[in-house]
Amino acid sequence: MPNERPRVMTLKQIYGKYPNQWVLISEPRLTRDLDIIQGTVVAHSKDVDAIYKIIRTGKYPRGAIEFTGHIPKNVGIAF
User: CA angle, 5 as apex, 4 and 7 as ends, to 5°?
Assistant: First the structure.
């Protein structure tokens, strides 16, 4: 789950490397609209609860969560 050797990746690279997974991106670079441009994947999992567990440790105070799979239009996600 925690990534082997973190490095800065573009969002496109993240989607390619971690398909259909929840990713925790540390120190994300964002657009003005708060869309992720790039960042360092520090954890990834098919189980979002595993990502929340890592967040609760407080080790990554500035981060973003992204799901790299398809979310149907009739499904909403709230945090």
Answer: 135
